[in-house]
Design brief:
Elements: H1 3-15, H2 27-37, H3 42-55, H4 59-63, H5 67-74, H6 80-97, H7 105-109, H8 116-127, H9 136-145, H10 155-168, H11 174-188, H12 206-210, E1 226-234, E2 241-246, E3 257-258, E4 261-264, H13 267-276, E5 281-282, E6 286-289, E7 293-301, E8 311-314, H14 325-334, H15 337-341
Parallel strand pairs: 1-7
Antiparallel strand pairs: 1-4, 2-3, 2-8, 5-7, 6-7
The structure holds iron/sulfur cluster.
The site of iron/sulfur cluster has 14 residues, from helix 9 and helix 12.
């Protein structure tokens, strides 16, 4: 083992957090944790991991679950396509692989929603196969350790970092080393204020020597953010009910439920609509940020019209429907009383 590898492993054994998915080699649990942790912080993801493991102790349980229950459990994590992929992959494992996760990197890549990163994680953690994991933490550690300027989100960057990660991997214990690199990036070589002054690999760290730590890793500029202007309409067909519709289009929040929605191209046309609407209720504005979209949302109460075609549901059963986080935020702020106290 090289001195760098040995130092990183020693650091990991002394500093690692105790996380439930590190106590198992069961590929189902490891896959679950990896999908949940994509774009989610560990402390937030932990509660969801436990919820899913409790509700679906095996891949067979998840595969036969009702989609609505899966989306309900996922609620609050965002990126609902991940929940749908999770469910679809469980079905694929059961139907195509008789409930047994593939035990090779290539086999794992055949699973829906499993890309090179997740395949390497499962292959190394569950099956001790020598595939280096490259997540955001590992990119950062490598870019600093080797003072590497290629953008990590460019095609060339991906190739360079894959090569570096694979070369640094401890072949005899790839699962442990992958965990160590990820944890080292998460706790020691952090994005802001990395702990360079008390770092076991400082003498090997080229960025530290060159004083370029804060400039790494390099990333290409993000995609332009799309702004969308939403008005959710709260419409009671009869007292105690509210109109809801399911989202079918290939867009955000597919298969979730919402109050009937009007979308506008810009803030001005939305404002004109709101000013002309004889609304019984108008909420404050909610700004909701998704990865490439900013949503500006209002909630209004209005009378039913003959053209309204959404389904009435009982207000008391609202919590049984998977809904987008922004609607949840609105309900948390205003409470269910809003439906009774206002003449919506
Ligand atoms: S010296 Fe600083 S930048 Fe280099 S590996 Fe250690 S924590 Fe990261």
């Amino acid at each position: 083992m090289s001195p760098i590898q040995a130092e990183i492993i020693a650091w990991y054994l002394a500093n690692k957090r105790s996380l439930p998915w590190r106590e198992t080699q069961n590929p189902y649990f490891i896959w679950l944790s990896e999908i949940i942790l994509q774009q989610t912080r560990v402390d937030q993801g932990m509660a969801y991991y436990h919820k899913f493991v409790d509700a679906f102790p095996t891949v067979f349980d998840l595969a036969k679950a009702d989609e609505q229950l899966v989306l309900n459990l996922w609620q609050g994590l965002g990126y609902y396509s991940r929940a749908r992929n999770l469910h679809a992959t469980a079905k694929q494992v059961v139907h195509e692989f008789q409930g047994v996760f593939p035990s090779s990197y290539e086999g794992l890549l055949r699973l829906k929603g499993v890309g090179p990163y997740t395949a390497a994680a499962i292959a190394s953690f569950s099956f001790d196969l020598p595939h280096a994991v490259l997540d955001g933490n590992v990119f950062r550690v490598l870019s600093r350790l080797y003072n590497w300027p290629t953008p990590i989100n460019s095609t060339q960057g991906k190739k360079d970092f894959e090569k570096m990660a694979q070369e640094l991997l401890v072949q005899e214990n790839p699962g442990l080393f992958n965990q160590a690199m990820m944890e080292f990036g998460a706790l020691q070589c952090k994005p802001a204020q990395p702990n360079c002054h008390d770092c076991p690999i400082q003498v090997h760290c080229e960025a530290f020597g060159a004083q370029t730590v804060d400039a790494l890793p390099v990333k290409l500029k993000k995609q332009i953010v799309r702004k969308r202007y939403f008005v959710f309409e709260l419409i009671q067909s009869t007292p105690g009910t509210i109109l809801m519709e399911k989202r079918h289009a290939k867009d955000i929040w597919q298969h979730l439920y919402q109050f009937p929605l009007r979308e506008f191209d810009d803030a001005e046309s939305k404002q004109v609509y709101l000013s002309n609407l004889n609304a019984s209720f108008l909420s404050k504005e909610y700004k909701h940020i998704l990865s490439h979209q900013h949503l500006y949302c209002h909630f209004v109460g209005r009378d039913m019209q003959s053209s309204d075609s959404a389904e009435p549901i009982s207000i008391l059963e609202l919590d049984q429907y998977p809904i987008p986080r922004v609607i949840e935020r609105f309900l948390e702020d205003y409470g269910l009383d809003i439906f009774e106290s206002k003449a919506i």
